[in-house]
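Record Steroid C26-monooxygenase, 419 aa.
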Amino acid sequence: MGTPTIDQTLEAAKVFADPTAYADEQRLHRALSYLRANQPVVYVDYEPYRPFYAITKHADVMDIERDNELWLSEPRPLLGTAEADDLAKAQLEAGMGLRTLIHMDDPHHRDVRKIGADWFRPKAMRDLKVRVDELARRYVDKMVEIGPQCDFVTDIAVHYPLYVILSLLGLPESDFPRMLKLTQELFGGDEEEYKRGTTPEEQLQVLMDFFNYFTELTISRRKNPTEDLASAIANGRINGELLSDTDCLSYYVIVATAGHDTTSHAIAGGMRALIEHQDQLERLKAHPELMGTAVEEMIRWSTPVKEFMRTAAADTEVRGVPIKAGESVYLSYVSANFDEEVFDDPFRFDVGRDPNKHLAFGYGVHFCLGAALARMEINSFFTELLPRLDSIELAGTPELASTVFVGGLKHLPIRYSVR
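=>
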């Protein structure tokens, strides 16, 4: 194979600063595999982003997530352009910015997380399962209704988890299309098909639209509390004080967006994987008891959240590479989830893969609050679909979104027979 060159390493490292790389799986995984083997901690300095160190190995990502005193979410929790970072900081200082759970560090993170935690515990999930199963059935029925062809992403995958999470929040169904559009605009700032504008100011308006909507909701739920998650957030208190406007509105945004967008990408990615690996589809149909491991493999395979960032609180090193206090690292979940040292034959889609120590939900104190719900939704959908599925194939070329944060398939044309 020869000694890796500086040029090869620099070229591979470009994928972290290029949203289009996530729409080109071959290019992406070729670069990530190269870096894991040759330079697992790599310095990345490409405009329009400020420099960072990309972390590509599973073990290193876990170590960093585990040590949340050394590695902080603030002030750079995710990869944004320098201009966008500066604007977000200014807006937050003016009381108009976004500060969700992913932006926070303990002890404030722990206190804010508790407000919504009960809604995602096992008992709450058991209570919610009837509704989730009902919605799974509704959307499989919709496949029958609009078949024998559809765009699985736009017709099914984006709507089913949206209905689940917004029902949990207690929002009216008439507002669901508005929430879908805002979510796609918020997470799709690098994708031509989704983004609202080209400047950070234009994209910031998406956030303001979210805030305006949820400000009205907060006023309503504080005046007339109901038995839903929106009321729990609106009336949540820390040390006897209601959440600040910023924390309250940001809580809604993270639940309403991450609560469905990531799951829709996992469902769509899982569907594509089953279509492209018909042997695994038939295996799962013949052995439905494998659904639990199949769901984990779908999540690993699609890895909807591509990265989070952490900033060093003190001088340290990762795998012998010195990192100074104030410098940032990029945690590549996609790379970690295909690490050859952790996953046997990682590029094999295996519905029975066990163990499956993927990091798609993160790790440590920032482990995804809604992981149990996401798993249940994916499980319910495919548990409903597969016994009714006679055949399925691609009806066109799948299209992936350009992104550096959350993303997956934006189009999945399929042809099928469902009873």
